[in-house]
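Below sits the subject:

***
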Amino acid sequence: MRVLVTGGCGFIGSHIADRFHAAGSEVSIIDNLSTGAVDNIKDEYRLYRLDIQDAECERVFAESRPDIVVHMAAQADVNTSINNPVLDAASNILGLVNMLHLSCRYGAGKFIFASSAAVYGNSEQVPLREEMNANPLSPYGISKLTGELYCMKWKEIFGLNTLCFRFSNVYGPRQGIKGEGGVVSIFMERLVRNQELVVFGDGTQTRDFIYVEDLAQAVYKSSLGHISGVFNLSTNTETSINCLIKTLETIRPVKNVVYKEQRKGDILKSRLDNSRIRMVLGWDMEYSFIDGVKKTFEYFYRTVV
């Protein structure tokens, strides 16, 4: 099987590329390396250093002829989307449309789109289910919700089999600490350096943390069948930031915790119901939260120290 992963040098994309490679797939990657790193990928992957909006991407599709396209490339920083919504839309909407168009033109059998829990906004109803009304708080969430609509309509209009995953909060090795780096990776880097942890808000805000290898397995497994539509991809577990800190304290002493004002656009409660994807795929998580946090700490201890 031939797979093209956009954003494949990034945190999540590189793990997805590795999972397909482990199954014997031929892997090609489009990445502009704005946030990704070549060190995240294997030498045998074919890397095209391009932006997903670039017309030159057509050459990638003509050469690689992917059976599966996994679209991970995106502007993923909520604050950037608020401060520069035009940039956000250019990447997350125009870039997506370019990938959908080329996937159809060159006969891809499936298009998998990385959406986000950000489409739900700040709902007091948890767990969040796919049929609930979406009410994003930021241009980033708006662009992801718009991307889902494009994918659904591309299936209706052009017959492309599209699948959208609303990722919860993904964490694990290779995650960045800059921009919209996840709270787990930011805390890990500061923990290894024996620096204080900074919490925006009172720490009672919750997230649904999913380990990146569990997510990559679900994406790979979904590529093997005819599943389509919109699905949550999560653990269906609500964990507060304060609970995350307590978990970190079981691994290494925390120097200090500083609480600051909540940031604009931050979601207070998040837990995504994953029952549909578990039923349809027969997928489940391999890693408990503590096991995933330990593996992530080991990675940061090796690479930061």
About this structure: The chain has a mean pLDDT of 94. The two ends are 38 Å apart (CA to CA). The CA atoms of residues 67 and 108 lie 5 Å apart. The first helix runs from residue 11 to 22.
